[in-house]
């Protein structure tokens, strides 16, 4: 039951953020589904397989791939789906803990949380990089295949 509540909250958070940044209304539902899919991958990996860094990496990878597919399906830019779908994976909790630790002069804890936050941000960037790399490989393969049919 708690998982269903989390899925619903992830979907609503994505839709809400999409409304805040003026995502077109016809892309909101698809963006919410992309976000929930990425978050489910994150949740599964973080809970059953590995830690938060790999969970963020693979969750963002799924968000990146599904955003590319959604953008082709809806004939809209990829960023319309990427940015709102990324909201549940952003390390806001770690950023808050860094600032809180600095405010109470607990520099060792601030450093630990900052390192976690940097690793998560790097995993998010890498996930998008890998999904775009896979997309470019697919595009080149399609072009090569089309050229072979011509020649």
TrEMBL record:
> What residue intervals traverse the membrane?
42-66, 78-97, 117-139
Pfam families, per this entry?
A: ThrE_2
Domain Threonine/Serine exporter ThrE as annotated: residue spans: 7-133
Query: Where is the protein found, in the record's own terms?
Result: Cell membrane
Enumerate the UniProt keywords alphabetically.
Cell inner membrane, Cell membrane, Membrane, Transmembrane, Transmembrane helix
Instruction: Name the membrane topology term.
Output: Multi-pass membrane protein
**Which branch of life, at top level?**
Bacteria
Q: Which family does it belong to?
A: Belongs to the ThrE exporter (TC 2.A.79) family.
Can you say what this protein is called?
Threonine/serine exporter family protein
């Amino acid at each position: 039951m708690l998982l269903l509540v989390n899925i619903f909250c992830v979907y609503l958070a994505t839709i809400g953020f999409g409304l805040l940044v003026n995502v077109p209304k016809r892309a909101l539902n698809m963006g919410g589904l992309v976000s929930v899919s990425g978050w489910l991958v994150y949740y599964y990996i973080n809970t059953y397989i590995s830690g938060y860094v790999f969970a963020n990496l693979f969750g963002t990878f799924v968000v990146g791939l599904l955003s590319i597919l959604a953008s082709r399906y809806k004939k809209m830019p990829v960023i319309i789906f990427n940015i709102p779908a990324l909201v549940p994976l952003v390390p806001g909790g770690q950023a808050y803990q860094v600032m809180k630790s600095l405010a109470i002069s607990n520099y060792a804890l601030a450093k630990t949380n900052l390192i976690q936050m940097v690793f998560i941000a790097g995993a998010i960037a890498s996930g998008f990089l890998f999904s775009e790399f896979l997309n470019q490989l697919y595009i080149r393969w399609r072009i090569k295949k089309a050229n072979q049919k011509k020649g």
